[in-house]
Amino acid sequence: MLFGDQELAKMAKVFGLDVAASVAEFRELKMNAKRVGKTLADLKKSVDMLPIASAECERGFSAMNLQ
């Protein structure tokens, strides 16, 4: 088991991706570091969509309350 395998498996499970394929592609990336597989690319897209902070959401609620 490589460092980060368990965390990656948890994230893949949360986003409904194939856990075994995600871990296999992650290991290949760490050993070879030449290409990112489709499952890892899909996982990155999903993670990129998560908000880092809720400030934009809070501003939207404040604007709705002002109306």
Question: Which terms would index this structure?
Answer:
67 residues; mainly alpha; 4 helices
Mean pLDDT across residues? 85
Number of helices: 4
Topology pattern, helix = H, strand = E: HHHH
> What is Rg?
17 Å
Please provide the count of β strands: 0
Strand content: under 5%
Uncertain regions: pLDDT < 50 for 5+ in a row?
none
User: What is the domain total for the residues?
Assistant: 1
Note the gap between the termini: 54 Å
Biggest β-sheet description: none
Structural class: mainly alpha
Helix content: over 70%
| Shape verdict | elongated
Structural description of this entry:
- With about 70 residues, this protein is an all-alpha fold.
- The chain has one domain.
- It contains four helices and no strands.
- The termini are far apart.
Secondary structure layout plus pairing:
Layout: H1 5-14, H2 19-32, H3 38-48, H4 55-66
Helix pairs in contact: 1-2, 2-3
Q: Brief overview, please?
A:
The protein is mainly alpha-helical and 67 residues long. The protein has helices spanning 5-14, 19-32, 38-48, 55-66.
